[in-house]
Queue: 3 jobs
Job 1
Amino acid sequence: MGREQLSRQLDAGLTALGLELPGAARERLLDYQALLERWNKAYNLTAIRDPAQQVARHLLDSLSIAPYISGDSLLDIGSGAGLPGIPLALAAPERAVCLLDTNGKKARFLREAVRSLPLPNVQVKQQRVEQAEGQYQCITARAFASLADMLAWGGHLLAPGGTWLAMKGRQPDAELTALPDTFAVRDIHTLRVPDVDGERHLVVLERRAA
């Protein structure tokens, strides 16, 4: 599938999601998909190799949570190939975004994406989440771990009043019963992502008041 077809697919998906992107963000999303497709041949960054599926299951899936992002700093834990962090950074270039991953190959790809797209609002950190420092007003995690493990490892990174956005497939009812006492569920949203089958849910968590 050529870039023109992917562009039409992306436009239709953005319309279905009700999203308007700033400036050249749409073209840079396609640049990112092309970079991912090229690097994936050697680095195995994603099991999804079909370009149309990459647009749907990576770009649009990531952007489906854009309406729920808040604050001026975002940490993407277990970012992998930059998902959802890079699409979200392109959608809101005024927000400082940090992409965190332990894998060296993935971190190299992330740095190349930041350099070549370019993404001046994004930094890359290659380290374990337990060792990371700082605090962020919003944290995202996509298929990273159970909710309890996510919060145990990275809960210290959430700023007071911040929100943790956990992207899940099915609604994780069993995981919700095992949350640490210091965190509470604010909302659970059902996501409908264009061209993506199966259930998608977003769990919005916040730290309980002391």
Note: The domain at 3-207 is CATH 3.40.50.150 (Rossmann fold).
Job 2
Amino acid sequence: MRLILAASALAFALPLSALAAGSDSSSPPTPTDTTKTCKGGMVFDDKSGKCVAPKDSRLDDDDRYDAVREFAYAGQYRHALAALDAMSDQQDDRVYTYRGFIARKSGDVEAGMTYYQAALQINPDNLLVRSYMGQAFVEMGLLPEASAQLTEIRRRGGRSSWPEFALRSAIEQGKGFSY
């Protein structure tokens, strides 16, 4: 019986470990040298083995997005914004998504929602922004609006994804995630 319970728990945990905001993992971003070693908002560049400024040409936007996510999870919103400012395309829906997340987590929910709307105008299939927007609705006590975003995530192919998991959990628990 214990073996069956353990196998069931493992089967449930595995899909969740494959899911997260900005990535496909339900766990927080693992701290890297960006937040463990680098100081002052510098980003660790794996290729050179050095801490570099977010605008450094050795970094590409994916490196910057990873840094944004790590900084945001660590509560280093100023550094996350500096990495966002270094993105090559400021009109990218991912930039608006993270600006919205940072604004919301910094207490400016109205600005966060404005950024989320901008991201959705560019890419209505951005499941992550729908999850973050839904989590904002949960935090404001607007559960029907949160549920509508969950329905949209599922309708747009996001079943069993991090955005679906995070929003569903936020609705069930009554609070959003920090990553």
Note: The radius of gyration is 17 Å.
Job 3
Amino acid sequence: MATEIQPTGQAPVEKTSEERVVAGAQQFWSKNSKLIGIALTVVVLLVGGYFAYNSLYKGPQELKAAEAIWKAEEYFRNDSVKLALNGDGINQGFLKVISKYGGTKTGNRAKFYAGACYLQLEDFNNAIKYLKDFSSDEIVAEMRANGLLGDAYSALGKKEEAVPYYKKAGTLLPEDQVNAPEYLFRAAMLLQDLGKNQEAIELLRQVKNDYPRSVMPEAQGGQDVDKYLGKLGDTK
């Protein structure tokens, strides 16, 4: 145990616990001060680099992407799908925005638009490519993307692949009285085609019970769903 040297004739005095802690800390610092300094420098550089990247590069890129996409979005709203996708020779289309600003939020949004454009142009493989590359924290956007993926796979005759996308689209926003039951209904019709009648019945019952006032192209509300349930042998 560490002691202090006392004048001749006096007994050594033990260090207190606080003194031992301080001494240990001083020893640790003297041995490792260089490594600690390097580690702190690295942390400062990483934090500084992160903020520099966001303020000096990412921020301006987002602004440029937002400026580049506005005309393509206008073309999309006006159903000028090819111009929205490819541009008009002066203004950039969604594909160019993706190419130049794919890592930005706007570039990500352009992937959704590109997928929707390709779907309207009946280029279903490219529609799937861009829609699968799109991601969003916004539930409405995620629901719509999954619904469009279901449409694309269904159009290709890939019913097995389409069903989970329709089901996901139908459950992401259950309070949506229009889109949620429509996507569930589409999934049920494909399951019926696949011979998976029990799964189809379960989805149709969900539409009937949860969305009795929904209006869909083929089945309007809970009452009309009954005829589809009847065809599947469910008359409850």
Note: The longest strand covers residues 3-4.
